[in-house]
């Protein structure tokens, strides 16, 4: 049996299913705002990847990171100019990590790293 965390590539974080997707590696096309964070919290992935949406006013595009950190979930964003918002395929294949919470950093996420490299490393650990 494959012990690697399951990859869930979803254009919208709302596609994650509570209970079903717990512990998965969730790569989304969603912005990293607080509304997206609530859907990730309900599903409880190992890590959730969002788009920083240009960061936005009062860093609204990054609000998911501290919120999920406070609930024990790793989260990071890719830069809005590296991947298309709303397209998980772009997040995974073209995205470059721009911000991460401490839990994501503990899993090896770093700014400037490609999303693909992070996900490959996470899934290589058995």
What would you say this structure looks like, in words?
By secondary structure, this protein is an alpha/beta fold. The protein contains 5 helices and 5 strands. The chain has helices at 34-43, 64-70, 88-94, 102-106, 115-124; strands at residues 7-10, 25-31, 47-51, 74-78, 97-100. Strands 1-2-3-4-5 form a 5-stranded mixed sheet, sandwiched between helices. Strand 2 (25-31), helix 1 (34-43) and strand 3 form a beta-alpha-beta unit. Helix 1 runs parallel beside helix 2. The model has no long low-confidence stretch (mean pLDDT 96).
Kindly estimate the percentage of residues that lie in beta strands according to DSSP.
15-25%
Helix proportion = 25-40%
What is the element string, with H for helices and E for strands? EEHEHEHEHH
Rg over C-alpha atoms, rounded to the nearest angstrom: 13 Å
Structural class label: alpha/beta
Low-confidence stretches: none
The average pLDDT score comes to: 96
Shape: globular
Helix segment tally? 5
End-to-end Cα distance, whole Å, is 11 Å
Strand order of the largest sheet: 1-2-3-4-5
Biggest pleated sheet: 5 strands, mixed
Q: Give the tally of β-strands.
A: 5
The gist of it:
With 126 residues, this protein is α/β, with parallel strands linked by helices.
């Amino acid at each position: 049996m494959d012990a690697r965390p399951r990859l869930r590539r979803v254009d919208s974080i709302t596609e994650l299913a509570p209970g079903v997707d717990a512990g998965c590696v969730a790569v989304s096309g969603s912005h990293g705002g607080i509304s997206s964070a609530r859907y990730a919290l309900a599903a409880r992935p190992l890590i959730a990847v969002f788009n920083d949406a240009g960061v936005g006013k009062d860093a609204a595009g990054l609000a998911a990171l501290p919120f999920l950190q406070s609930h024990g979930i790793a989260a990071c964003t890719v830069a809005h100019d590296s991947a298309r918002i709303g397209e998980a395929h772009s997040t995974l294949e073209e995205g470059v990590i721009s911000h991460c919470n401490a839990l994501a950093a503990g899993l090896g996420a770093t700014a400037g790293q490609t999303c693909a490299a992070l996900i490959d490393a996470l899934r290589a650990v058995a």
